[in-house]
Request: fold
Amino acid sequence: MTDPSIEDGVRFPIARAARTEFAFATTLFFAALIYAAVQPGAFANTLAVVLGLVWLGLAIFFRDPGRHSPADPLLVISAADGQVVEIVRLNEPVYLEGPALKIGVFMQVSDVHVNRAPTAGTVEFKQHVPGQFLQAFRPEAAMSNEHHFTGLGTAHGRVLVKQISGIMARRIVCTVAEGQQVAKGERLGMIKFGSRVDVFMPPQFEPQVEIGDRVRAGETPIARIPSDGC
Reply:
């Protein structure tokens, strides 16, 4: 269940799921630089600047910094970078099949888009659901937008991660397989260009964040498991 990439020392890596797009942008940028060097002029220089800005934007969007997850086994950590927009207890019918605590995090375009396991466990369930592409911070987006479920069986009950697409984020990537064991903070996938991630957990778990709090995937505790496990 160990994932050496959780605490890697690389300061500015690119997310594995986005390396194809980044490699293509890099190729175009260097081609533009060569073109500007061989055929200098306003058009060539402008093209190089524009592609350079695109390359820089993708490097920011697709960055994948190492994270240091808290060792406390009773802490559930955020699955996404962003702002807490929802904390509610409700019925979760897909995987927990009963009462649950839901904590939703909205990701801005400038946030890291890589999503991580909120707790250690075994991937027991995966499901991709087609849908709309509404603005992810709208309440109805959680139900109507395209989304992907990843269910984790843990020592303290079932935990469900729901990656939700948005108006710009139209590709959800899940990088784990059913039956795979994951460590707390291990990479689960990403939503390209930001959106929203909801985490559903047993209702007795105690929230450790409030609406409006900023959180970091793999690091910020969002809930605590009661010490008696009940």
